[in-house]
Amino acid sequence: MATILEDSGFNPDKVLKIVGGNPVKHDGPDKVTGRAKFGADLLLPGMLFGKILRSPHPHAIVKSIDVSRAEALPGVKAIATRDDFPELPAGSPFGDMTRNVMAREKVHYDGHPVAAVAATSEAVAKRALRLIRVEYETLPHVIDPVAAMRPDAPILHDHLRTKGVDGAEHMPTNVVERLDLAMGDVAQGFAEADVVVEREFDSKPMHQGYIEPQGCVANCNEDDQIELWCCTQGTHVFRDRLAAILKLDAARIRVSQSEMGGGFGGKTGFYGEPVAIVLSRKARRPVKIVLTRNEVFRCTGPVAGTRSRIKMGCTRDGRITAAEAELIFQTGAFTGSMFFNAPQAMFTRYALENIRTTSYEVVSNRPKVNAFRAPCVPQIVFGVEGIVTELAGRIGMDEIDFRLKNAAVEGYRTIYGDTFGPIGFVETLEAAKACDHYNAPVAEGEGRGVAAGFWFNRGGDTTGSLTVAPDGSVTVMLGTSDVAGSRISISMMAAEELGVPIDKVRAILADTSAIGNNRVTAGSRTTFSSGMVIVDSARKAIREMIRRAAKIWGVTEEEVTFEDGQCRPASANVGDFDPLSIAEIAARTSVSHGAISGHSELNVTGAGPGFGVHIVDLKVDRETGRVDITRYTVVEDAGKAIHPLQVEGQYQGGAVQGVGWALNEEYIYTPEGRLDNPSFLDYRMPVASDVPMVDTVIVEVPNPRHPYGLRGVGEVPVVPTLAAIGNAIGNAIGIRPRSLPMSPPKLLALMDAAKPGGA
Amino acid sequence: MEELSYAAPASLADAVAMLADAGSGGRVLAGGTDVLVLLHGEAIAPKLLVDVKRISEMQSISCSDGAYTVGAATAGMRIMDHEGFGAAWPGVVEGVALIGSIQVKGRASMGGNLCNASPAADSVPPLIAAGARANIAGPQGRRSVPVEDIVTGPGKTSLGTGEIVVSFGFPRRPPRSGDCYLRLTPRTEMDIAVVGAAVDLTLDDAGVCSAARVALGAVAPTPLLVSEAADALVGTMVDDAALDRMAAAVRAACNPIDDKRGTIAYRTKTSGVIARRAARTALERARNS
Amino acid sequence: MAQKTHVTTTVNGDGYEFLCEPGQTLVDALRNELQLTGTKEGCSTGDCGACSVILDGDLVCSCLTLAVESDGKSVETIEGMADGETLHPLQRHFLELNGLQCGICTPGILIAARALLQRNPDPTETEIRYWLAGNLCRCTGYDKVVRSVQAAAEEMRRD
What rounded mean pLDDT belongs to chain A? Predict the structure, then answer.
């Protein structure tokens, strides 16, 4: 029998009773009544409070740490420093990870942890931190990635040599890697072009901006088994990495996930969690660590800032003939920006044959970056889609028609080697062209922008279980994280398979000791992948129920079918049997073969790429450079919207995150290398009055590799936003900005420079 | 480090005595929306917080013969909800309405906004433009000074040890008067002013500006009263030429810094724009009053 | 150790007593002394609104209120919003219209929205957006938050 990966059983003609509806999510009632437990909400008897001492310097040697006075403070139960973490080789993946959690030889950024205290109250822990003496030898620092690439730049890591460059073995550097990715003949492609546009762009790091600061409780018992409660996008990844950096058996660490108050990629890596474990092991009591907002901004993963030079050419009749890019990504103090996504995704959606890209990842004295929806892609697409719009304008073609003419379709072989299956970029562009917004006139004094985006969508290791209780109700066990509604969507797929009402199904998020491995919830993979293993599990349970029914009726399994939640004789010839419902079969399990369940572990493949087109109208205050977004529409292919309200929410939330990134959000450093705006006040995320309603158009071009045809929808919604807003500003003021964020001072300067005679 | 204590006296005399006794370790707690941020951010380490919200004089809004007195600890939402005061001083209420969120204004007061001594405090330029006086109580008794005399630098005031701003006294409103406060921020709400401008003006029977006051925020170490800008309006119909001269005077008065919230060039350039817009609205209000 | 202060307060109609340090915030006391963890702390500086509560009728940030200031006062939190098993119309419409995704900002938004509708039963979209400007949400883009408030307001006006 073919596996679900080989044959998903997708049937476009299947009449769906639950999938495509909008039931209330089962985790919702606890969230509207204050009962849902997030990372900071667990209180345990005997619990201590942990606080972390952080470096005030962006770059310094840690010469000594004296904790004696802090240790003597009544109420202090444990102190952790670098000496409490196993020494792992600098420059190795786990060596970097442990050094980011607790500085070892050097501190590499403002806020880098150097020590931690667990005490009977937060107030005592804070007092103890003030008693710790750290002797630093400060070093010159470098914040800007281009400055960090210069030969005379301060070197962060003595061991670092550039990967991908011949002859670099003896040259200390801040350049982690040079990555060349190309296809076709770019020189020939540009030679065929009638119009060539080349531009430079830059972007600043921004923060994921989840409202819940990281919070955790670690509890080490007397057998040195560790329970960790935390808000995480990946319990198993946390467990395995914690085991590696603490040199413990993974089986000793049980990671349970709280409800998660937003992650967007930023909770794929840990910060205070290993520190809490070390403190709990020393104190032999539970230890809670909750980061402050200041710590979240200074020390947890922002998004990579970038510099880029992008060149594209097209023929007069609108065919893009070649594209070229040189990209620089700042990864913060340690590697891990996932910059390789950008050269793979930046042009992918257009059926280009000739592409050449060179990308660099660079360390500097900033916090290590972390994932954020389509890591490293939106800030590069900001440039690409600006040029696409400019090319369309140069040849006098409608910009959606231009994109349609170049749109990739099934069978296109991408720069990263995959060949597209059925995809919906053309359908998405057509839906954008047909939507009300695109056909409405642009209001006087406003500008309209359009941009398109792509994301691979991901699969990967996924495990899930489904059990049928004796009364026929169903438990779904997931090992992935629910970032915004995957539990209900996956429960809906289980209910659809089993033919039971959605109210008969409940999903739980299992801990790492209760369920097998799951990759992080990231890359738009969870509803797709966990949905796949739960459908697989449900189908296994159905096969089992058919077997039971056959046994009860004394017929062969081939003579039993399952539909609408019931086993029935496959034909009138089988015999005159009343249908057996799931509940009836489940009630008799003790006389047949025990409980009914299904289980599935897969390395999920077949994720269908996603495409989106954004349309935005805005006005720019000519005297101040302020931007007001007046209308916004997201058009995106979901494959199949399992729970359309959740899908719309992904589109709308992504767009507004992009609005913040486009207009105001950025990391600002002082000349001393300290983060100058580590607060919501000065970081300036969009508030409710900053944005209009966000209209959505859900396109559904099914992905046949999934039983219900779905594509991930977590990443694409932010990919085109920056570019769409940039293009709209360009149309409003006549100059397309090339630097993010497009903040009022920058726009005013652009407008002034364009006036006759300059500023 | 000394431990913190908290007191909430019901009388002004007790509050003054406590603060005088605590010396530099004493701090007034009104709405607390700045003090508690500073306290928990470890930017200040007072040994005594004197909560003045139980002192009725500091929590009331009264009007005598058209002249308003507003308690310095009166929460912003109370001021915004006071119809009579809002009709008389819409510009002051605009300043109050921009002090943070609804939640923040549920606590934050004009007294706190002034005494926190931020150059960007939103209620201060309209108070200055209105010609409001700060009524002060201290160990030496009571005194009253123009609001513009309180802030002496970022985080610094002219108040002596034990002195508390009790209330703000507003002048009687002449006919054909109007005020307006506008600020420039990247977002619509929840930001600190990059530039703030308040304009108060009075017209004569013929519509000629007979009196004006122009005050700026966030463009210098303290909020500024710019008499040259006011002079540019007085004696005119507040036409474009007068507004141009006023904007030029505003720009000339700016002495801002480059920081995370704005650059010198940007602040200077936009100060004239914002002051001009504020003057237009103040003019309209004066004409319609 | 700092001298602790004895506080007697009413939370959601129930009397409570607790001890707190002078500098301790109300959100800290609600969560850690009274174990009412429905009120969330997102920033501690009054910029996110997750800790919104009603203090003697005023909508405030409990991170910018000292615990001692609740002495003799009445506090309303998310835990008191539903009437037993009956959800408040705002709670119900947030569920039905997906006005929440991760849910961390939801208690604060619900408390703030209820305060709005008590003052203004028929707010415009703009009034809702400006009233909720002190409540950051990073998931929803605010669209479904605003729609949920509009739907609840409409139902409450009908009833």
Answer: 96
CA nearest B107 in C: which residue?
C60
Cα(first)–Cα(last) distance of chain A, in Å? 72
Burial of A612 (0-12, 13-18, 19+ CB in 10 A): buried
Supply the DSSP symbol for A207: B
Query: B149 by DSSP, 3-state: which?
Result: helix
SS3 C134: helix
Q: How far is C58 from chain B (nearest CA, A)?
A: 6
The alpha carbon dihedral of A381, A383, A386, A390 has a sign of negative
Half-sphere exposure of C78 (CA within 13 A, CB side): 34
Q: How far is CA A432 from the centre of its chain?
A: 25
Hey, of C139, C145, C147, which one would you mutate to test binding to chain A, going by the most A CBs within 10 A of its CB? Answer: C139
Full-model pTM: 0.97
C61 with B3: Cβ contact below 8 A: no
Is B188 within 8 Å of chain A by CB?
A: yes
Q: What value does the mean pLDDT of chain B take?
A: 96
Closest CA to A388 of A411, A407, A409: A407
Closest-CA distance of chain C to residue B233, Å: 33
pLDDT in tens, B209-266: 999 999 999 999 999 999 999 999 999 999 999 999 999 999 999 999 888 888 999 9
Pair of tokens at residue C149: 């408030």
CA separation for the pair B284, C102 (Å, rounded): 46
Mean pLDDT, to the nearest integer, of B151-156?
A: 97
Q: Select from A634, A687, A695 the residue whose CB has the most chain C CBs within 10 Å, as the one to mutate to test that interface.
A: A687
Say whether residue B107 is in contact with chain A using an 8 A CB cutoff.
no
Query: Helices (DSSP H) in A417-458: which residue ranges?
Result: 425-434, 436-439
Rounded Cα distance between A55 and A102, Å, is 10
Interface predicted TM-score of the whole assembly (ipTM), two decimals:
0.98
**Which amino acid is residue A691, in one-letter code?**
V
**What pLDDT does A268 receive?**
96
Closest CA to A301 of A237, A234, A208, A216: A208
A323 CB-side CA count, 13 A: 29
Subunit contact B39:C65, Cβ cutoff 8 A: no
Pairing of strands A253-257, A505-509: unpaired
Q: What is the C-alpha R_g of chain C?
A: 16
Residues in contact with A98: Cβ distance below 8 Å, sequence separation at least 6, in sequence order: A85, A86, A88, A104, A245, A274
Say if residue A759's pLDDT is above 60. no
User: Token pair 């204050």 is at which residue?
Assistant: A34
* Inter-helix orientation angle B240-253/B264-288, to 10°: 140
Looking at chain B, which residue has its C-alpha nearest residue A620? Answer: B186
Q: What are phi and psi of A675, to 5 degrees?
A: -65, 125
Neighbouring residues of A388: CB distance < 8 A, sequence distance ≥ 6: A312, A320, A350, A399, A402, A403, A451, A452
pLDDT mean over C122-134: 98
Percentage of chain B lying above the pLDDT 70 cut: 99
For residue B186, give the nearest of A130, A684, A689 by CB distance: A684
Contact: C98, A35; criterion CB under 8 Å: no
C87-124: per-residue pLDDT in tens? 999 999 999 999 999 999 999 999 999 999 999 999 99
Interchain proximity A484–C101, CB inside 8 Å: yes
Total Cβ atoms within 10 A of residue A449? 27
Pairing of strands B224-225, C14-20: unpaired
CB-CB under 8 Å, A690 with B189: yes
Helices (H) and strands (E) in chain C, counts: 5, 5
Of A259, A653, A681, the CB nearest to C141: A653
